Amino acid sequence: MIKMFVMQTCPYCEYVEKQVEGDSRFEVIDIGKHVHNLKQFLDLRDNCPAFDEAKKIGDVGVPCYVLEDGTVTLSSKDVGLEPMPEDGVGASCSLDGSGC
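RE: above sequence
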């Protein structure tokens, strides 16, 4: 099962989350619904090099995906999902508000 970390207020997360509705290969974890989910995400973000670029440019790093083998990716394409088209909305939510 692929863990998919999202946040309800992120338009990019909403876009890819619609693609996995009813797909048992994905476990959707909303980091804003419970502090336990947020802690799980922050532990991952703080310790995984897959987030290095996102942190450098001020992105939160959602959506992110944890594959069954433990591989972490921020690329929707890596898990077979269609990325959100570039339409003026950032591909990832930024801490400074420039994305999302």
